[in-house]
Each structure stands twice: as C-alpha cells, then as structure tokens.
Amino acid sequence: MTQPLPEVRLRRRGSLATCVRSTLAQHTLVAPIAPGFPASDVRSSRKQNAGGFTLLEVLLVVGLLALLLWLVSPNLFSAYARGESKICTARAELLRRAVVEYMADHGGDKPAGGSTDLKEVVTELRTTGYLDGEENTPQEELLACGAGTFSLTYGDDGKPKVEWRRSGSAEAEAKK
Q1: C-alpha 151: how far from chain center
Q2: Which residue ranges traverse the bilayer (predicted)?
Q3: pTM for this one?
Q4: How far is residue 61 from each of residues 55, 57, 175, measured CA to CA in Å?
Q5: Partner of 130 for a Cys bridge, out of 34, 79, 111, 125, CB 3.0 to 4.6 A?
C-alpha cells in the first residue's frame, strides 16, 4: 500500500514550488513491485537500470561503421580484381610452360600441329600428360579465366607465348 503524502504547509518564506519540492524530496514515492516484494525507491531503480544505449548513440555507431565500410570497400574490390588477375596470369604461365616442355620432348614440334587454337593445344597437352594436376579442371574453366581471354602465339624463334588479357583492356589500348 502506498503512504499518503504529508500535508503541505505553506510558509511565508519561499514559494509554493520550493515547499512542495522539499516535501517530495523528503518523502519519495514508494510502491510495492508485487505482493511479497518490498517496496523500492523509484529513483534508485532508474539509476540501476540506466545501462542501455540511447537511440542517438546507436545511430552514431551505425553511421561510423557505414563510413568505414564506404572508405574500405573500394580497396576490397580492387584487391579481389588484382587477385583474379594474378591467378589468370599464373594460369597463362602454366600453359606456356606445358607447351615449352612438350616442344622440348618432341624435338621442337608444336602441340596440335602448330595450331594457335588453345582448345586444341590444351586437349593435346592433356592427352600427353603435360597438364598434370589439371585433369579435374574442365577445359572451359581452364581457358576462361575471369573476365578475359587467353591467346597463344609463337615468336620468330619458335618460342611459345601465352597471354591473358582482361576483356576491355584491348579496347582501352586501342584508344591510346
């Protein structure tokens, strides 16, 4: 049960508001939480449960995280593109070395009868065992690396050259 507030007597010194504040400060509002539980001071329970975050604090943290993501994301995407480019360049080097080994073992003869069609060359290199470890990789996946294409050429000295070019890079070079 709640206790009735004491009678407020007006004093000549001070205003009515001062008198009411001082009386309420002396007698805090007390109410039982539930039957069987003791009454608690409303002010002290608010201080104990004041550990949460305000909406402003949460929005500030979300805004800072969004700003950091905005600053970092271009670096992440360019790092992904650089990694893809390095994988494709390494695959081109793997194909070039396989052609060089084939030519060394076959007295300078080029695979697939000297064709520059990489599908034919890769088929020949696989059947003769020069692309070991790449048996489980489908031929389409081996030749289609990222957003680019491979090309096979033979130099004047007969040495093979396998290049990987990103799609659109030839158009950019033509504009220069």
Answers
A1: 33
A2: 53-72
A3: 0.54
A4: 10, 6, 46
A5: 125
Q: Is 130 exposed, middle or buried (0-12, 13-18, 19+ CB in 10 A)?
A: buried
Burial class of residue 85 (count of CB atoms within 10 Å of its CB; 0-12, 13-18, 19+): middle
Category of 44 on φ-ψ map: left (φ > 0), alpha (ψ -120 to 50) or beta? alpha
Strand 39-41 and strand 160-166: pairing? unpaired
- Joined together, the tokens standing for residue 118 give 């990489």
- 149: helix, strand or coil: strand
Place of tokens 């659109």: 168
Give Dmax over CA atoms of the chain in angstroms: 121
For residues 102 and 125, what is the distance between their CA atoms, to the nearest angstrom?
A: 8
Q: Where are the domains of the chain?
A: 16-48, 79-175
Instruction: Report which of 84, 86, 128, 87 is spatially closest to residue 104, judged by C-alpha positions.
Output: 128
Tell me whether residue 148 is exposed, middle or buried, using C-beta atoms within 10 angstroms of its C-beta: 0 to 12, 13 to 18, 19 or more: buried
Give the gyration radius of the chain's Cα atoms. Answer: 40
Tokens standing for 64?
A: 């800072």
